[in-house]
Specification:
alpha/beta, Rossmann fold, 2 domains, six-stranded parallel beta sheet
Length: about 325
């Protein structure tokens, strides 16, 4: 298993690393080779140890490919050279390539288009997180298997909610995606003029602030993720409508569902499939729709409870780790 990141990298953790115990439980031996080590928090680790370990990890990956025999190499999102791909091909090693975003769209790294095309073209099977990525794979002769990014429904569970008190609108994500929150700042500010609520951001950029509302910010912590989601009564996922965002996997919505929270999301890409308006949340494409949807949920705790329970049911039945592993296992079993 070759991954683009380590346990502290969301995509690597969700789409690869957390599957390892599942494979081992059904008799597979899995060797993990991340592209990078975990990122240290101290300055010495960040600027001295991390770069050295990163180089060692790359050497280790090359050595493992050249010197050892594998039945299947599962490559999550990262790129390897044509030479190494050819080495695997000559030994009849099956390559499964998995990616969950439009990684081929990166204005700062135009070669990523060529690299993604190479990985897709050389793979025995490609796995993607959403149907919206299928078109790209078809261009290079691959019909991918669509497996959503699974959510840990055993680890993330609904918290007991108070029907009274100030409701909390929440967002969970990463520093770079917190820029998308600009889409909802005006509706939130308008909402604050009429209703009392908290706005909780988890994992946003450290300098992210929004004026005129009761805003609380927390750094994302893996071990505390369930508690952080449990503080929310409503989850939001604003997205601009771009070629890149249409390909995103909607994982944030699945986290809200697992935690039993109704959501409001932009109708972009897979969001339109995951969110069923009036059943597990609402879709909002402009300021007025964001305002009305959030206001409806703020004012009606019973509606929040009903939609949250429906979301939890879907998370368990359609997007849980167990469900997604069975789909992944079926792909791997084809190469035994």
């Amino acid at each position: 298993m070759l991954t683009d990141g380590n346990i502290d990298h969301a995509s690597a953790r969700i789409r690869a690393l957390e599957y390892i115990p599942f494979f081992e439980n059904v008799g597979y031996r899995v060797d993990l080779i991340p592209r990078v080590p975990q990122r240290p928090s101290d300055q010495i680790g960040k600027f001295l140890i991390f770069p050295l370990l990163k180089r060692w990890y790359n050497v280790k990956m090359v050595l493992f490919i050249l010197l050892k025999h594998w039945d299947v190499v599962f490559i999550q999102r990262t790129f390897i050279s044509r030479f190494l791909l050819n080495c695997l091909s000559k030994r009849s090693t099956s390559i499964i390539y998995d990616f969950d975003d439009a990684i081929y769209i990166n204005p700062n790294r135009p070669r990523d288009l060529e690299r993604t095309a190479l990985m897709v073209g050389c793979a025995a099977q490609v796995i993607v997180s959403t149907d919206y990525l299928t078109g790209f794979c078809l261009q290079y002769g691959q019909k991918p298997e669509v497996i959503p990014s699974p959510v840990e429904t055993d680890r993330i569970r609904p918290a007991k909610k108070q029907s009274e008190g100030i409701p909390t609108i929440g967002w969970i994500g990463s520093p770079w995606t917190s820029g998308f929150l600009e889409l909802v700042e005006k509706p939130l500010q308008q909402l604050a003029l009429k209703h009392e609520f908290r706005f909780l951001t988890v994992g946003a950029a450290s300098d992210y602030v929004v004026s005129g509302i009761f805003h609380q910010a927390e750094p994302w912590v893996f071990e505390d993720e369930n508690n952080q989601l449990g503080k929310m009564d409503i989850g939001i996922m604003p997205l601009p409508d771009t070629d890149y965002t249409r390909m995103k996997g909607g994982y944030k919505l699945l986290q809200y569902f697992a935690a039993g929270i109704p959501c409001v999301a932009s109708p972009v890409g897979i969001n339109q499939t995951i969110v069923k308006p009036g059943e597990n949340g609402f879709l909002a494409s402009n300021d007025e729709e964001w305002f009305r949807s959030l206001e409806k949920l703020i004012l009606d705790s019973q509606l929040r409870s009903i939609l949250g329970k429906n979301g939890r049911k879907e998370a368990t039945e359609l997007y849980s780790r167990d469900v997604c592993f069975q789909k992944l296992l079926a792909v791997v079993e084809c190469f035994k």
